Amino acid sequence: MERKKTRKWWKMDMKKILIPTISSVFLTVAYSNGVVVKANGKQQPLTASDQDVHSIRQISKSIELGFSPFTVLKTGLNHMYADTNVNSEKLQQTSTNTKKIVYLTFDDGPNHASIPILNKLDQYNAKATFFMLEPNMKQYPQAVKEMVNRGHAVGMHGVTHNAKMIYQSALTVLNEMQTGQKTLEEIAGVQSHLIRSPYGSFPHMKPLYKAVVEENELHLWDWTIDSEDWKYPRGQFVGKVINSAEALASTSKPMIILMHEKPTTLAKLDYILRYFQENGYEMRPLTEQMEPFTFHHE
Ligand SMILES: [Zn+2]
């Protein structure tokens, strides 16, 4: 009883110090950015106390999602969370008129998360690319058909997803991809030439392997942003993607994001889609006409 009381007292004391410090820093940033919120349909500044509570909630949420403190302060949080009704006009003005394109790609499906992922993409008018495993296509044929019907790109990711098996030779790579190609055609009636090799092309895809897939008109695609969504199931990958996208935006590299068809990715997908929508990006599928991006082109 005595110990519990002491601990509680310390906790309270830390709050007394931390909360005003964090809120005053945030308030300075928020006010200098002219942050206002909608209330009763009118744009009006928040009172200091509302702003205070609001900011602290948002900061803790953003840390949970893996945003860096730099990103949080730079953007003032307002264009990360549309549901807060914060006016992001000022931030939108800074975006240029040149077309911003992002290619969202999902690997390892389809599975039971596929249709909900498709529904989520529809909400944001986003198109994506799905690199699928052949046995999963057989197991979830309806999801494959839906992807095609809703205008997404579909491609092959092999059969085994086992590095020791698929990368035995150029021929084993080719066989796995062509097996997937055939199944995809049987299910959805489309022939795709887009492939992504499991774990990426480097170091597995030797020059000979690449030459063989190229000869067989298969286009090998890697990515420029690895979300590592499989590693961060609680959502920290969101911050990683957004931080990487902001860094990549100033380069000439294409923005190709690697994600996976996972329920945990679906759970936080709104944040990713909202970020790109609010920042003026078009979310497009990869096409057969595009020059594929692979790691060796870097
Ligand atoms: Zn994979």
UniProtKB/TrEMBL annotation:
Known InterPro entries for this protein?
Glyco_hydro/deAcase_b/a-brl (IPR011330), NODB_dom (IPR002509), Polysacc_deacetylase_ArnD (IPR050248)
Species: Oikeobacillus pervagus
Which Pfam families does the protein's record reference? Answer: Polysacc_deac_1
Give any single GO term for biological process: carbohydrate metabolic process
Lineage, opening ranks: Bacteria, Bacillati, Bacillota, Bacilli, Bacillales
GO molecular function, a single term? hydrolase activity, acting on carbon-nitrogen (but not peptide) bonds
In terms of SUPFAM superfamilies, this protein maps to: Glycoside hydrolase/deacetylase (SSF88713)
> Membrane spanning segments where?
none
What range(s) does the NodB homology domain occupy?
100-284
Q: What is this protein called?
A: Peptidoglycan/xylan/chitin deacetylase (PgdA/CDA1 family)
Q: CDD domains, from UniProt?
A: CE4_SmPgdA_like
